Each structure stands twice: as structure tokens, then as C-alpha cells.
Amino acid sequence: MGQTSESKRGFAAMNADQQRQIASQGGKAAHEKGTAHEFTSEEARAAGRKGGEAVSQNREHMAEIGRKGAEARSLATNGEGRSRKVRGGSHEQQVKADEQPQQN
Fold first, then answer.
1. Closest CA to 32 of 24, 41, 40
2. pLDDT tens track of the chain, all 104 residues?
3. By three-state DSSP, how is residue 83 classified?
4. Euclidean distance between CA atoms 15 and 23, whole angstroms
5. Is 77 helix (H, G, I), strand (E, B) or coil?
6. How far is 35 from 46, CA to CA, in rounded Å?
7. Does residue 80 sit in helix, strand or coil?
């Protein structure tokens, strides 16, 4: 079979690690040159707000988030039907917190 106009070329033909390495070099060069953009806290806040608004428009995605939250809550109950306190953080942070003595 011959090549089609849709075959990947250049950056798109590289695997993810190669793309990441080249992108990293570009970012480092921009910082060294002084042309890299540094977000202010206000710019970051505005970008997060804009992204949140865009994501919340996808009702299917929001429903999936709700299902995952309900599932996590049901997993947080122990076998006797009593709820454990549901808290944030990574799984590793939660395991570490569970190992600490409870403070009342």
C-alpha cells in the first residue's frame, strides 16, 4: 500500500516520550531566553474558571463525575453500615492518614 496524505509525519509520528522530550527542551530554551510566559495567580484563576465552565457544559461528563462520587461514597462505608469520613487527597495520603492514631 502506498502512503496516504493522512500518514503521520514529523512530530506526530514520534512516540509520546520523544514528543515530551522535545517539548521539554523548547520550554527550557524559552525560560533561558526569558520569553517563557509565567502565569500570574489571577491569570491562572481565570483559566481554571474558563476550563470549569467548558467542562460543565458536557452533561454526560458531569453525570460520570457524579457516578464516581457516589461510588466513592458507598465504598467509604464499612461492613457495619457506618460511614467513614470521606476526605480528599491521593490514595497514598489517605493510607498514611489511616495509619496515624485518631485524634478526638
1. 24
2. 455 567 888 888 999 999 999 988 988 888 888 888 888 999 999 999 999 898 889 999 899 999 998 888 888 775 445 555 556 667 777 777 777 666 55
3. strand
4. 12
5. strand
6. 22
7. coil
Q: Quote the DSSP letter at residue 53.
A: H
CA distances to 61, 96, 97 from 104, in Å:
39, 18, 14
For residues 77 and 84, is the Cβ–Cβ distance under 8 A? yes
Q: Which three cell numbers stand for residue 71?
A: 461510588
Our CA angle for 38, 42, 43, nearest 5°, is 50
Write down the pTM of the prediction.
0.34
